[in-house]
Amino acid sequence: MTDKTVDPDGPPQTAAVPARGFSRRALFGLAGAGAVGLGLGVAGDRAAIAVAAAASPTGASVTYPFFGAHQAGIVTPAQDRLHFAAFDVAADLTRADLIELLQDWSTAAALMTAGRDVGEFGAVNGPYDAPPEDTGEAQGLPPAGLTITFGFGPTLFQTADGADRFGLAARRPEALTALPHFPGDMLEEGRSDGDLCIQACADDPQVAVHAIRNLSRIAFGRAAIRWSQLGFGRTSSTSTSQATPRNLFGFKDGTANIKAEEPDAVTDQVWVGSDDGPAWLAGGSYLVARRIRMTIETWDRTLLREQETVIGRNKGAGAPLSGGTEFTEPDFTIVGRADAPLIDQAAHVRLAHPTQNAGTRMLRRGYNFVDGNDELGRLNAGLFFISFQRSPEQFSRVQLSLAKNDALNEYIRHVGSALFAVPPGAAAGSYVGAALFA
Amino acid sequence: MRARFSLLALGSAALLALTGCVANNPGGAGPALTVDSSADGCSVSASEVAAGTTSFSVTNSGDQVTEFYLLGDDGLRIVGEAENIGPGLTRDLVVQLAEGSYFTACKPGMVGDGIGKAAFTVTPSESGTVVNANLDQQVETANTNYSSYVKDQIAQLVTGTDAFAAAYVAGDFDSARTLYAATRMHWERVETVAESFGDLDPKLDLREADLEEGQDWTGWHAIEKDLWPAEAEAGFAAYTPEKRSSLAEQLVADTATLNDNVQDLTFSLSQQTNGAIGLLDEVASGKVTGEEEFWSHTDLWDFQANIDGATVLYAGVRDILVEEDADLAESLDSEFASLQELLDAQRVGDDFTLYTDLTPAEIRAFADQVNALAEPLNQLTATLVL
């Protein structure tokens, strides 16, 4: 098996990478390989983009380095599959335990994102009378562009009743509090919040599941899954090298998303700046997750006229109703019959647009989901919305505008919500969040 | 209050396009023509088709918003149109065409008499098509009847609201609770019209979950919570007498304003058909799920009222539909009746079973039947208006 790895100074290379199952001793070599992404900032991202652009159609053998200035899985070209999990830490967890958990997670994440098994011996090479260290279902699968991204919830710093379990309360970013209630929110506690989160994205669903499964196993006794979400299809492009995918309403989604090729926008809107505070979060971001249920049965019997009016784009090409093609900027002033705007006042594209929100943008990285069906025989389907932004205020501003007036609200409801601070990337040999505990 | 896409707003586009309607052609989809609407031309890929379903795929190659018209033999009567096509966009116009002479024209900039007017001929088809000569009269009758229905329901809403508010302020909560669901039925019967007044709907029918942080909560559901405090969250404090008076006064005043607003409404055919669709959507998204009446659990009253309203709308256009598509009419008759049977089974005297007393199987049966009705019902606009 040959994999492509990242060379920041040149075009993607095809290099021989050990197959899965190789022992943890290979990690030392791995850490060295990961170091190419270190301290390179946007250069590392550009390299990642170059890899994706040059990758095979499935992207199956692409790897993204785990170590680097920023965590992977943010500006990384959105992979096709998601497994996301929020965790609550154990009641008896100490600060040292928490650090150790993050170290263990980082080590395992570095191995898995390189296409290797976790543990010293992996899935099948260990002692015969011990359970295998790696769960094994990713054997024979390529790295599939796996990225693993860690985040810290508000309750990690201070619980709802004020407890400072890990001596972190003073280091909590001011902006890291529960999101406000938005009109129409029907949030379920069991689908919301959490002390920690892990976003695993890959082009192979089993690779993503393997990651969450092994990381949750590593955490047993220290942290347990509070809620989790599978996403079967990406709904956003985060690189101009990607075609715009469709959400379950059948419309292209994420056309105007922040793309990795816009370094200024990424700097302005996605990464926490060194002056934003706190210092440990500089180079990180804020992750908002919203489980948005779509009542697709009702939507599907809606007239095409209404569907396009609600979205503000046409359904075929994804062009704004003001004219042009998919990537033409919407013109909200152009009017049609009776001087009514071609893009309705309540159209989703209008209310979400940066020009209607003081220039606010987010890097969206959501996924379609269908989790079986509900008790009424309707598909339990929707969009697992994920956005990365420099400040949670960016999400809140746009979401308030949408929640109040979006014509789409008739067909969606927000049932889960969570906010996490995503620390910057880890230096090789270190762990994610190390600066927080320094 | 989920449907923000109001009947009145939605109906604005398809008011016309009636007089060319013909019986549905069972022969299936006809030819697909293309139309190029440029700055100075309106070229159609063919000038003659056989009667039946015809589709015009209109591309705006100019730089202004354009419209495409299919006109009758007098060159004035609008048979079909695709409006509000932005520059560079393509939109399809699908029409049923009877044998005869027509004209095609485009209107870039949407002003003036249009350009590129050209003769367009529809030749006889083998299956034959029939023009409904009485259509205009039938549509006008349906409009008049529905306008009267809306005014009557809102008038009864005013009377009921006055009595409800008086009982609530007087502390006669038993009476208020009795009047609550029965009075709201008048609102729910014409919900798609009532909520089309964007400023009044949130004042009258907002649910607590729809509130913005810091927003004042008024209307039926704010009072509902106070009337069924046992269903509210722990620690919920009963309202003060002042707050009760204020909520009641506001409810009465807003309802009176609503009554004023509906006096001069008229309804196009598409507004009526889309209104029926909208009411079914209300049932599917709010009532079947028990979300509308969060504390009183009187969702089935609303459910019945939404269906009452949809039934009235359907009955108003049914004669037209029978001529256009008798099979669809038969299917809708049957599905409406099946849904009503399910509702009748939950009647308890003048009341209904509370939502919370329904079994999962009963709720499931409602949901399935709503789907069974909504699928054909949502064909109504396309069948009648095109």
From TrEMBL, chain A:
<dbReference type="GO" id="GO:0030313">
    <property type="term" value="C:cell envelope"/>
</dbReference>
<dbReference type="GO" id="GO:0004325">
    <property type="term" value="F:ferrochelatase activity"/>
</dbReference>
<comment type="similarity">
    <text>Belongs to the DyP-type peroxidase family.</text>
</comment>
<dbReference type="InterPro" id="IPR006314">
    <property type="entry name" value="Dyp_peroxidase"/>
</dbReference>
<dbReference type="GO" id="GO:0046872">
    <property type="term" value="F:metal ion binding"/>
</dbReference>
<keyword id="KW-0456">Lyase</keyword>
<dbReference type="InterPro" id="IPR011008">
    <property type="entry name" value="Dimeric_a/b-barrel"/>
</dbReference>
<keyword id="KW-0560">Oxidoreductase</keyword>
<dbReference type="Pfam" id="PF04261">
    <property type="entry name" value="Dyp_perox_N"/>
</dbReference>
<dbReference type="GO" id="GO:0004601">
    <property type="term" value="F:peroxidase activity"/>
</dbReference>
<dbReference type="InterPro" id="IPR006313">
    <property type="entry name" value="EfeB/EfeN"/>
</dbReference>
<dbReference type="GO" id="GO:0005829">
    <property type="term" value="C:cytosol"/>
</dbReference>
<keyword id="KW-0408">Iron</keyword>
<dbReference type="GO" id="GO:0033212">
    <property type="term" value="P:iron import into cell"/>
</dbReference>
<feature type="domain" description="Dyp-type peroxidase C-terminal">
    <location>
        <begin position="244"/>
        <end position="426"/>
    </location>
</feature>
<protein>
    <recommendedName>
        <fullName>Deferrochelatase</fullName>
        <ecNumber>1.11.1.-</ecNumber>
    </recommendedName>
</protein>
<dbReference type="GO" id="GO:0020037">
    <property type="term" value="F:heme binding"/>
</dbReference>
<dbReference type="InterPro" id="IPR048328">
    <property type="entry name" value="Dyp_perox_C"/>
</dbReference>
<comment type="function">
    <text>Involved in the recovery of exogenous heme iron. Extracts iron from heme while preserving the protoporphyrin ring intact.</text>
</comment>
<dbReference type="InterPro" id="IPR006311">
    <property type="entry name" value="TAT_signal"/>
</dbReference>
<dbReference type="InterPro" id="IPR048327">
    <property type="entry name" value="Dyp_perox_N"/>
</dbReference>
<keyword id="KW-0575">Peroxidase</keyword>
UniProtKB/TrEMBL annotation, chain B:
<dbReference type="Pfam" id="PF09375">
    <property type="entry name" value="Peptidase_M75"/>
</dbReference>
<keyword id="KW-0732">Signal</keyword>
<dbReference type="InterPro" id="IPR018976">
    <property type="entry name" value="Imelysin-like"/>
</dbReference>
<feature type="signal peptide">
    <location>
        <begin position="1"/>
        <end position="23"/>
    </location>
</feature>
<dbReference type="InterPro" id="IPR053377">
    <property type="entry name" value="Iron_uptake_EfeM/EfeO"/>
</dbReference>
<dbReference type="InterPro" id="IPR038352">
    <property type="entry name" value="Imelysin_sf"/>
</dbReference>
<dbReference type="GO" id="GO:0030313">
    <property type="term" value="C:cell envelope"/>
</dbReference>
<dbReference type="InterPro" id="IPR050894">
    <property type="entry name" value="EfeM/EfeO_iron_uptake"/>
</dbReference>
<dbReference type="InterPro" id="IPR034981">
    <property type="entry name" value="Imelysin-like_EfeO/Algp7"/>
</dbReference>
<comment type="similarity">
    <text>Belongs to the EfeM/EfeO family.</text>
</comment>
<feature type="domain" description="Imelysin-like">
    <location>
        <begin position="144"/>
        <end position="380"/>
    </location>
</feature>
<protein>
    <submittedName>
        <fullName>PbrT family lead (Pb2+) uptake porter</fullName>
    </submittedName>
</protein>
